[in-house]
Every structure is written in structure tokens, then in C-alpha cells.
Amino acid sequence: MRHPLAALLLLIAGLPLLVTGALALGALFDAGAWQALAQEPQWPRALALSLWTGLASTALAWWATRALLAQAFVQQRLARLLRGLPAMLATPHAAFAIGLAFLLAPSGWVLRALSPWLTGFDFPPPWPTTQDPWGLGLIAALVLKEIPFLLWTAATQLQRDDVRQRWQAEHALAQTLGYAPRQAFDRVVWPQLAPRLTGPLVAVLAYGLTVVDMALVLGPASPPTLAVLAWQWLQDADPATNAQGAAAGGVLAFAVGVSVALWRAGQALAARHTRRGSGARGRTPAAGPVHGSRGAWLLVAVYAAVLLALAVGSVAGVWPFPALWPDTLTLQAWASVWASRGTVLTTLGLAVASAALALAWSVAWLEAAPRRWDAALRPLLYAPLVLPAVLWVVGLYSLALWLRLEGRWPALLLAHTLMALPYVLLALAPAYTGFDPRYRAISDSLGRSRAHFLLRIKWPLLRRALAASAAVGFAVSVAQYLPTLYLGAGRWATVTTEAVTLAAGAQRSLTSAYAGLQFVLPVLGFALAAWVGRPRRFTVAPT
Amino acid sequence: MTLSVHLDTLGSAQRTLLRDLRLAVPPGAVLTLMGPSGSGKSSLLAAIAGTLASVAEGAQALRFKGRIHLNGVDLTHTPTAQRSIGLLFQDPLLFAHLTVAENLLFAVPPGPRAQRQAAVQQALADADLTGYGERDPATLSGGQRARVALMRALLAQPRALLLDEPFSRLDAALRDQFRAFVFEHIRARGIPAVLVTHDRADIADPARVLELPHAG
To answer: Which of A436, A463, A506, B15 has the fewest other C-beta atoms within 10 Å?
Structure first.
């Protein structure tokens, strides 16, 4: 064995991943479950809703990302577009859905702002603006949440100096051939960028088709999406119903596979069309002051409104309908959060431990594993990102049962660490593998040991990337809903499970408080990471 | 202290870069290696330094077959950290999180604190950089950074020095200065050195030039 450490690491992470995946897929070989599912009248409609919300949200997010990028690229304002991204990315899906629900609800800020002067309402209308049967609220939330993610992954490509310079040159060249700036972007830059976003796009599509926590808050209720239906069945006391839930998870996995294949076929067709082109040059906008990107502002405004709604909601006391501001403010909700501070401690403990484990594993792996091994492992690592969560937790639960850990803290830690691992590795790998190998050669040639090199040179130089990827792991753990509830057997509450559970009830202030915490904790994590990773301040200023 | 390389083959499984090469560099002399891009110049340096693994990372693994002797001692299988062979690259590669003095201190072998500090101060003085010790390396000029990089390599008390196009990033005037500075230090130390370059003006000793052929 030429790489004993790498082999050991592979075993540590690969085995639970493989076993979980195998157990999850194994649950699908249950003929009874499939028969039960076939007789269940709700699921075809639920599947249709899942496909509709997943595909529509992905298509809209993809289109909006392209439009925002085109505008920013043409106007050379990419850096400005990306400034607000970190906070948007740090906003957990569930917290965003809850905040958006409060905005859109019949008693939410949107209608309050328009009442009674425009609408004439003195009472909240009985409209199904959240949990609408068409899934429009869910689609809106998904689109708004996925745009920052797609923008960010595109930005990591566009911000590489070599790539950006070449594309800018090609973009300019296309304009010398008479193409309008936007046309030149569509014909030259986007076709090169889009294929590089396939991975993130598959993740977005899979997420949209299988999301549970957002759908519980904003999605249609009767029938719900298939993921929510499967989740309800999984929580049933009857094992036969549980098996039916796993089978529904299998249907979802299949739906994801088919959707990805269809999407890629459609994209290939569109790409062929673009390559041939009509030769139309597009219209060059008249010279003059370029207007700022309204789309980007809208995105920022929605996020700000959502966070403000959570903040105000958490301290709102009496708040009669058309009033824009609560009559009384109260800290009652925060007092009850404080009273059950064990919830916050559980969240923090799990997040710190799983982020630390995932980071330690990722560093050791990137340090010890040959590149070929790393490339081979990646598809397995991404399984938790692409497999429907409702199916994944079935495998995790079987694994926990087998280890006799169900309902216990180590089971939660295992689940959170496995979920955090791919994200941490994804966040760390570019900086870590991009580290100039000549530093190692220099350190070696100066007679220093490998440990000395790692502790004194490499890790200090990579401090920023290490801290940032730990914060990513922390944020992923905080946001976990399904694994926490399912593996904890309902015995462990985190801010996320509390927020989503409370969202179904009427306690606006307490829900807002937990959803707010769900946002605040990862943001604190990222802030701490930024502080830890800040560049060294040298005492002697340049003269 | 003579550096001698007895190379049978150097290359990947698919492609042999170099074969059947002998070279011997006496103390204080600089052998200049020239040749077209991809002829294996830098890989040869990496083989001598024992850093082939880091060069080939990601691409095809490079294998070296042959022997490397320094002062009669076979170093072929000695880890880089124990070879006492210094390296200088195109870029100065100063560690960005350390001050100039800390960069130099990193290279000084263990010993009494005061003695190590004194070695650093002496090196700063030799490089005409007295008083620059506490500076952020990023605030130095290109020529100053290059001198620090050389001083760092020398502070580890190498018994041979390998120079991988160390002058190519400097502009013409600086280049002449720094070249003279490097050669002077090599002569003063009496250690053998191998220099890889594209530029005939860099040749240290016209009697010691090795032109590598196209890889084939």
C-alpha cells in the first residue's frame, strides 16, 4: 500500500457514505412498499407538483443568473454584483422561506404596505398567498435562494484572472465584428461559461425537486410536493408506511435523474442553435449613462426585507393589520429562546464538532491522497448533494440503527458531518490544491521537516481558506432539518427544527426568533472566519 | 565539494525527457544549462533537489534513473530536507505571512537564539537591506525580494545551489546587478551551482555550458 494514510481516510469517510447510500437504495427493494405506493391516490399529483416547482424554479433561477451576469459583465460591474452575495449565501433556506412567508402572508408587510389605501382591506384577506396550491410561493423562494448560489459559482469562474482576461478579449473582439455587447455575451461568453456550471446546476435541480423544509413552510399542503409526502410517511408510526415513504424517495431520485438528463439534452440543443446563430448583431444601446442593474438591487432588497421581517417579527407584540409597525415591542420570544437555550447549545455543539471533523478530514485527505484518488472519490462524496434527502435519511437511519446509535448524539454528529463533508471539501480544495508546490520544495531545500512546513508555512498561508471552509461546514450543519429530526428521533431540537416546526403554528414572534437565530449563527460563523483569516498586519508600514 | 550527476533517464512513462547525461560541477563553479522549453531543464534541477514529486503533481509522474553525488556522498535516495541543496526559482516565493527577517530566520539552522538572529542581521546587511527586517515582503521592490530569496537559500548553509531562471523576472538593469550578486556569493561560498536559463547573457562561465537537446 503506497498511501496508507489516504487509504485510511478513504475508509473513514467512504465507508459510511457508501453504506448509507447502499442502505438507502436497498430500502427500494421492497415490493410491498411499491404496491402500497401504487395504490396511494395522492402521489402522482404530488410528483407533478414536485416536477413543476423544481423545474420552474431552476429554469427561472438559471435565466435570472444569466441576465444578471450578462448585465454585470457588459457593464464591468462584476465585483459590485458580488458584494452582497456572502450574506445571501449564508441565509439558510428555511429561514429565508419563513421570512418570505411573513412578507407574503395576507397579514404580511406587502399587503400592509398597500392597505387600505390601495386594496381597501381593513382585515387580512383570506388569500392562500403562502402555501398556495400552485406552489408559486415555493418557486419564488427557491428562485431567490438559488440565484446567489449560481451567481457565486459563476463568479468563481469569472474571477480567475486568466479566464476573465481571455473572455473579455473575446467579448471585445465579437463587438469589433459588429455584435452588440449583450449579443456578444450571449454568443461568446455564456456558451463557454454555462458548461462549467453544470455541477452546481444539477445540485440546484436536485435540491428544488426534493426540498422538504422550505416546502413545509411555503409549499402547497394538500397534496404537498412528493418530498413532503414522503417525509410525512417516513415519520409515520407504521413501518409499512415508512417503506412507502422510502419508495416515494426512490421515485424522486428517478425524477431527479430524468430531469437532469432532459435538462442537459435541452441545453445541448440550445447550444447548437447558438453556435449556428442567425448572424443578427442585436441593437447596440445608444451611448449614454449606463443604468444600474435593477435586478441585482431587487435581489438585495428582497433579502433585506426578509431579514427585517424576521428581526421585527421576533420582537413584535400587538400588531393590528394595516399598521406598518407593531404597536408594542416585546422581548418575550427571545426570553423563551433563552429559557430553552439547550436548543441553541445543541445546534452550536453539533455545528462546531461536525465542521471541525469535516475540516480535519478534508485537510488530511487533500494532503495525503494522490490526485487520482481525489478525482475518483468526488462522485461518491457528492451523493448526499444529489440523492433526495428523504431517501438519504433512510440510509442514515438504517446505519444508525445498525450502530445502535439511533436517537443519540453521535448519530446526529455522524449525519451532520457526512452532510458537511462535501461542502467543506468543495470550499477548501481549490485553495489547497492550488498551493504553489515550490514552497514545499523551498522549505525542504532549507532542511525543514514536513511537519514544520505544514505548521509554519502552508497552514498559516492557507488560514483564510481553512477558516472559510470551516464556516461553510458550520453553516451546513446549522441548516440541517431532516437528518436532525429523523436521526434524533425527535429527541434533539436545533434552531432549524424549532423554526420549521413552529412555522406551521401561529406564534409569529417565536418562529421569527428561531429563524433569525438560524440566520445569525452562520453569519457569526462567517464573521469569525473572516476575523481568523484576516491578513497579518505588519508593524512596520511601507515607507 | 563537487556536485556530480550521472543520469540514465528522466521522464514519464510516455515520454523520456533526457537520457545519458553526465555532469560534474566543482566547488565555486556555475554550470549553465540551456535548451528549448520542455527539454527537461527544470525537471533535471528538481531531480537533483529531490523535488520531482512536487513538480509532477497533477500531471504525469516523472521518474529519475541515475545517481547524484555531492562531495562523493550518494544523495540519490536522500530526502530533500537532508540534501543541503539550495533552490532559487523565477519568483522569490517569500512566505507572505512572515516578515522579511522571519523569512530569513526560517532558513537558519537551529542554535542559540542570539546567534540565529545575528545570522539574519548579517544576511540583511549583505543584501544591503539593513533595517528592512520587520517589513512585509510584499512592500519590497522586485530586486530587494530577489536578494532576500538568495539570502534565505544561503542561510540554510547549502552545499550546492540550484538556480531555476532566477533572473528572468527582473528588468535589464536589475538583472545585471542581481546576477553579479548571486555569482559573487557562490564563489565566496565555494559551492557548486547549476543555473537554468534562456538568456545567453546569464552564462556565468562560457567554459561550463550544457545545451540540452529537444526532447525526443
So the answer is: A506
Record the cell numbers describing residue A457, joined without a space.
508555512
* Out of A371, A446, A540, closest to residue B107 by CB: A446
Q: Give residue A116's pLDDT.
A: 78
The string of pLDDT tens digits covering residues A134-166 is 999 999 999 999 999 999 888 877 877 677 788
| Distance between A111 CA and the closest CA of chain B, angstroms | 54
| Chain-chain contact of A438 with B84 (C-beta, under 8 angstroms) | no
- In B, which residues are within 8 Å of A450 by CB distance? 81
Would you tell me the crossing angle of helices A226-234 and A43-74 to the nearest 10 degrees?
Answer: 130
* B130-162 residue pLDDT tens: 999 999 999 999 999 999 999 999 999 999 999
ipTM: 0.84
3-state secondary structure A182-229: HHHHHHHHHHHHHHHHHHHHHHHHHHHHHCCHHHHHHCCCCCCCHHHH
Q: Do residues A523 and A478 make contact, with C-beta atoms less than 8 angstroms apart?
A: no
**Whole-angstrom distance between the N-terminal and C-terminal Cα of chain B?**
33
User: Is the CB of residue A230 less than 8 Å from the CB of residue A210?
Assistant: no
Q: Round the CA-based radius of gyration of chain A to a whole number and report it.
A: 25
Tell me: cis bond preceding A116? Omega within 30 of 0 counts.
Answer: yes
Whole-angstrom distance, CA of residue A105 vs CA of residue A119 = 15
Residues in chain A whose beta carbon is closer than 8 A to a beta carbon of chain B?
371, 433, 436-450, 456-457, 460-461, 463, 535-536, 538-540, 542
**Helices and strands in chain B, H and E counts:** 6, 9
Residue A508: name the closest of A108, A142, A123, A140 by CA: A108
CA–CA distance, A389 with A226 (Å, rounded to integer): 12
**In 3-state terms, what secondary structure has residue B177?**
helix
Banded pLDDT at A379 (limits 50, 70, 90):
confident
Best of A443, A446, A461 to mutate (most B CBs within 10 Å, chain B): A446
Residue B56 contacts by C-beta under 8 Å, 6 or more apart in sequence?
B12, B62
Model confidence, pTM: 0.86
Residue B92 at interface with chain A, using a CB cutoff of 8 Å: no
Distance CA B195, CA B215 (A): 19
Around Cβ B127, how many Cβ atoms within 10 Å?
Answer: 23
H or E segment at B163? strand B160-164
Q: Which of A168, A169, A259, A153 is nearest to A206 (CA)?
A: A259
- Partnered with residue B11 across adjacent β-strands are B16, B63
